[in-house]
Amino acid sequence: MSQLELNSDFEDEIDDFATYFADVILPIPLPGTYTYRVPRSMQEGLQIGCRVIVQFGKKKIYTGVISSIHTQAPKVYEAKLIMECLDMHPSINENQLKLFHWMARYYMCTVGEVLNAGLPSGLKLNSESFIQLNPDFEEDQGEYSEKEEKVLEALASNDRLSYQDVSDVLGIKMIHPVLKSLIQKGRILLYEQVKDKYKPKTRKVVFLDDKFLSEDQEMEQLFEQLEKKQKQLEVLLKYLSIIRLDEGLGGDSKVDKKELIEAGLSDSAIKTLIKNGVFHEKEEIVPRIQFKGKNSDSTIDLSEAQEAALSGIVEGFQANQPVLLHGITGSGKTEVYIELIQQAVESGGQVLYLLPEIALTTQIVTRLFKVFGADMGVYHSKYSDNERVEIWNQVNEGKVNIVAGVRSSLFLPFDNLALIIVDEEHESSFKQYDPAPRYHARDSAIWLAQLHQANVLLGSATPSLESYHNALDGKYHLVELNQRFGKGSLPGFQLANILNARKAKRMQGDFTPELIEGITAALDKKEQVILFQNRRGYSPYLICNDCNHVPKCQSCDVSLTFHMHSNHLVCHYCGYKESVPAVCDACGSTAIRTVGVGTEKIEEDLKILFPEAHIQRMDQDTTRSKYGYQNIIDRFEKGDTDILVGTQMLSKGLDFDKVSLVGVFDYDRIVHFPDFRSHERAFQLITQVSGRAGRKDDQGKVVIQTGEPEGALLQLILRGDYKGFFNQEILERSNFRYPPFHRMIKVILKHKEPKVVQQAAQEYVAVLSAELGRKRVLGPQTPVIGRIRNLYIEEIFLKMEKKGVSVNKFKDLVYQKGLELKKKKDYSTLRLYFDVDPV
């Protein structure tokens, strides 16, 4: 791509007769779009949705997207020229642009922030700074430092140097003072080269000339010619064995050149055959992600209950309603999904299958590929930038009709969506927290389905209260699937009283006798065990026995978590890490002990208690690699792992035949978390993780360790009484004006000075209370963790009735008052943003 000097005058290129302008969405957190002049050379080819390179400000270069083309020049500023168009055909379609604008409006952020989140990194260009000698510089007798001389010497033998090149030449990272001095002296120029991040993967292939495959006589003569050229003959024979000529493959059959070389054949022999016209060589683009074809034997036989559920779902679709499928764990919802996907694809439509987390995609995707093969793609953050771009392009070109992915899959360029499935719709993982847009994939999927006139299906064994309330209220069509698929039955529960066990001194570490007995029995029968602890690391924190000092993060108001494997204390909010102290930082005592238990500690204790068992841990620390989830799950499915310890990712729809026992740690902490959704989360989490037990002929068992075995919520979980839980919880929500009866907006304010953020929050509350009424404004309040990354935090909660209040006017007022607050001199560096429908 050509170099683009930031200091050059692009306006010189403007044709006086060019009258077209384009509104461009830029991936920046500033409101609105920006108008640029369209060069005459682009006027015929430029389309809405195309990516363009534009200059913003004096030095910044961005990849923007055309949102409209018109003839109205901007009134406030002079439009710069579009520097380059990157697309022959639009990368963003009309429906995507509508989604971007809706999301920005609903979730109270800028359309640029939505674009930045929606467009894969590989489709956004980056600009890299370079320096070159100033060709107009006149020699002088100026003095230069030693570092400056080194840079000039390097430029004398190189046309340009990148920042990294300069850093390497000088052997230092702080190069800016040196470059600034050389620019001021007029010796060098700074410019930027824009680079396309996406590069297609290619391979070199070889193939026989057509005459050898079409005429037997020519092939015979070729063998005679190569009879004494052993190495060339070996290449020919290997090639023919790969393309299986006897099976009738034509002369266009290509073989990867690398495959021939890796088979031990001579590279020079291959080159000679190409030179002599026997083989031809060419480079071709190949997909980075290649899936095997579908298994023709993959037929699905639905049970009577599943058939009834399928009929109910179709009935809801025909009524043009979102459908909520409330199916208990193990009821076979996935088989119903597959049947619906087949129907949608056969009718010519596209399907989006949304999953809450990558851990869940591993098993589901394997099952889907057996049915649909290469007709489907997968889209999630573990894929590289280039891999995600390829899936994006395949959807855009209509090569992929089914996509399974996490929440970001919503942004893919679908143009004919027929069905969206949101599996485990209750999961909080569908909510984006940071950065903006702070959207909920389930709610956005419903809006996207309306845009495409597509059907949408929400599925869960423990629906969110909002979704179930919508179903009872008639907004959604409710379908229930209340029996397990096949011979499986719901697990039995056993409560293990931690307090009694501790008093009787019968605990073994953090294991009650009941859990130890259950694990022993399962291992004796060659069955598998899942242990759930929703806290990673070895121990939540360290404490000094003598002075009670707890090591805390330097940047966040949170204790550091002890990770034994790396022997570090780690902050799970900002990533700060430090070595484990030998003595207390406060008093110098060596009496430091761990408090609490995480997945790493459980794993270590299990190795001592059950030395013969094969144990694995599945949490964020063990699944960082691209195939981390898949490797752990594959080993467990094959039976190579006896006990799997993990966090909440274990609860999300995984299906293992040999699991007979599930153990739950720390139930009490989950229930008593200070949040109005804590009971809902506890019910969902324990029910879901319990559902991993007893999938085949035998009834599974769940052991819950708790200090409150008589708790009312726990009794509802034991009975699997979702409706009883819903009726109890919905009454609380109504009494205290929480969702689903009121909408909520959380306002987050951050500043490096605690007094500034507290004062700003008080002023904002006063303004909003005057406009909206004090009952609708709660706070300000400091959250449980009041400082993260050295920024102090205050929160304000806004409650809005679902009837009688204009949502857009309410949000516009809140947003505008926030902008007015930030314009004040004292709050110019204040960070203020909104979380609509927080979870």
From TrEMBL:
Q: Which residues form the Helicase ATP-binding domain?
A: 314-481
- Keywords on record: ATP-binding, Coiled coil, DNA replication, DNA-binding, Helicase, Hydrolase, Isomerase, Metal-binding, Nucleotide-binding, Primosome, Zinc
Q: Where does Zn(2+) 2 bind?
A: 553, 556, 571, 574
Provide the reaction this enzyme catalyses.
Couples ATP hydrolysis with the unwinding of duplex DNA by translocating in the 3'-5' direction; ATP + H2O = ADP + phosphate + H(+)
What domain of life is recorded for the organism?
Bacteria
Database matches in Pfam families = DEAD, Helicase_C, PriA_3primeBD, PriA_C, Zn_ribbon_PriA
- Spell out the InterPro entries in the cross-references: DEAD/DEAH_box_helicase_dom, Helicase_ATP-bd, Helicase_C-like, P-loop_NTPase, PriA, PriA_3primeBD, PriA_3primeBD_sf, PriA_C
Q: Which residues form a coiled coil?
A: 212-239
**Residue limits of the Helicase C-terminal domain?**
579-749
Q: Which cofactors does it use?
A: Zn(2+)
Q: Which residues does Zn(2+) 1 bind? A: 544, 547, 584, 587
What is the E.C. number?
A: 5.6.2.4
| Cofactor binding annotation | Binds 2 zinc ions per subunit.
Q: What class of enzyme is it?
A: isomerase
Keyword check for Metal-binding: yes
State what this protein does.
Answer: Initiates the restart of stalled replication forks, which reloads the replicative helicase on sites other than the origin of replication. Recognizes and binds to abandoned replication forks and remodels them to uncover a helicase loading site. Promotes assembly of the primosome at these replication forks.
- Family as reported in the entry's similarity comment: Belongs to the helicase family. PriA subfamily.
Subunit (UniProt):
Component of the replication restart primosome.
Tell me the PANTHER family matching this sequence.
PRIMOSOMAL PROTEIN N (PTHR30580:SF0)
> NCBIfam families in the record, alphabetically?
priA
User: What protein name applies here?
Assistant: Replication restart protein PriA
